[in-house]
Design goal:
Layout (H helix, E strand, L loop, with lengths): L1 E13 L10 E4 L1 H7 L6 E6 L4 E9 L7 E4 L1 H5 L5 E11 H6 L4 E3 L6
Parallel strand pairs: 1-7, 2-4
Antiparallel strand pairs: 1-6, 2-5, 3-4, 3-6
């Protein structure tokens, strides 16, 4: 039986940048993309923890060496500098396969950039 499971997750990132005049997406620092197993242009559920809102968009790689999460365009309209965000992606697979895979969960308790 196929099920949908959480594949990648970044928890509690503080929004320091939001770009209204950019393609609709969420920029995730390149190092974070790799650490949390996101794939560029993958559909992502961005959750504004501070406001209790959610939007679906896609992930793009941000600048290497940063831990910046930056909502862009329509996502930026939901964002507020200083808000706490989580980003989640999902994958469909056989339930037995899902039991064998250790999916990354990346806690980002603060940002440096």
């Amino acid at each position: 039986m196929n099920i949908e499971v959480q594949k990648s997750k970044i928890l509690r990132a503080t929004i320091l940048h939001a770009h209204l005049n950019f393609i609709s997406s969420v920029s995730i620092g390149d190092d974070l993309v790799e650490a949390s197993n996101f794939v560029e242009f993958e559909k992502v559920r961005s959750v504004n923890i501070t406001k209790g809102e959610m939007i679906e968009t896609f992930a793009i790689r941000g600048e290497r060496g940063t831990d910046v999460i930056s909502p862009n365009s329509s996502s930026a309209r939901k964002a507020r500098i200083g808000a706490l965000y989580s980003n989640v992606s999902f994958a469909k697979m056989e339930s037995e396969e899902a039991k064998r895979i250790n999916f990354p969960l990346y806690f980002l308790l603060h940002t440096t950039n």
